[in-house]
Amino acid sequence: MLPSLLRSLRLLSVGQRVPATAQVRLISKDVRVPKPGVGIQYQYRVKLPEKYTIRRLPIQKLAGRDPATGRVVVGTVGGGSKRKYRWVDVRRPPLEDGSPRQERVLQTLYDPLRTCTIALVAHGEHIRYVIAHEGMRAGDIITTYGDIPRIPVRPRIGDAHPLGALPAGTEVFNVEKYLGEEDRMCVAGGTFCTVLRRVGDRVLLQMPSKRQFSLRQECTAVVGRVSMRTPSIRPIGSAQRLRHLGYRPRSGLWQRKTGRFGRKVRRPPPLRELDAPPPPPAEVQRLTLHDVHVHNSEDTAKLFRPLRGMTN
Fold it and tell me: Contact 142/132 with Cβ under 8 angstroms?
């Protein structure tokens, strides 16, 4: 491997063509398996238009494959019935002047790609989809506030407030993790978190799993719990039903733990402070001999001059 690489570099230094037998190919076979909760989607992909729309958009099924490399990452995903994507707007901003925004619920709808129910709401001429809360009905009015008063408000289910305006013990969902970003918490069906207390300009939230988060008091959240599209325990009944839902057959080796041999009691994780979104990962660039272009033979000779004294 090393002698052929050195021979190829010498040929490039004098401006000759590298034979096909001496060319080096670097093929990466490692596939990065996503960690739970990182938000990577390997089941389908949606190409969103530039302007928001309530039309049902087509999806591209990935069948558990990476969209860039095409390699299988999740082996239990594949098939499924034909479904359409509804563009749900998770933002709940007030009006531009800071006054509350009121929206009327036109109807609640079924979303095949989510575990919750969505609602079609309207404010003036603007119509959009939002995540529905438990007990939402057509004709309800949902309000979004943007101010933080000195005394905590008396929240109403379905209204959106900054976390600093809510009293302790309030159940919220669709929580804004980072100020001004679309990254949200508690958007799946039946999920919620509880406001513990306010410490300075930050608010502590606790999940049902006893995990705690510290967020800025300006981050918005909706009061209540996310609605459930289907029951949490749903019998499958047959392998064809599992295929219809978009999952491949399983091996059958997995068995639910019964607790006969006890359970391991773990300490709850420490408090996680959410202040700024994590930076995007650096783009990895792979270069081979095919990407080397000889523009000036003198500069190339200077570049590979240290390699001329090396022998095979």
Answer: no
Q: What is the DSSP letter of 34?
A: P
Cα angle for residues 166, 169, 175 (degrees, 5° grid): 55
* CB neighbourhood size of 52 (10 A): 12
For 123-148, the pLDDT digits (tens) are 988 999 999 999 899 999 999 999 99
Q: What is the DSSP-derived secondary structure letter of residue 177?
A: S
Q: Please give the Cα distance from 102 to 90 (Å, whole number).
A: 16
Q: What are the two backbone dihedrals, phi and then psi, of residue 298, each rounded to the nearest 5 degrees?
A: -70, -45
Q: Which amino acid is residue 59, in one-letter code?
A: I
Q: Is the pLDDT of residue 300 over 70?
A: no
For residue 256 the two structure tokens come to 């639910």
- Which residues are registered as beta bridge partners of 203? 198, 215
Question: Over the stretch 45-59, which tens digit does the pLDDT of each residue have?
Answer: 998 999 999 999 999
Number of CB atoms found within 10 A of residue 85's CB? 19
Torsions phi, psi for 98 (to 5 deg): 95, -5
- What does the pLDDT average to over 189-211? 92
The residues, any chain, with a CB within 8 Å of residue 227's CB and separated by 6 or more, are 108, 116, 117, 131, 132, 133, 134, 135, 136, 189, 190
Contacts of 76 (CB under 8 A, 6+ apart): 64, 247, 248, 250
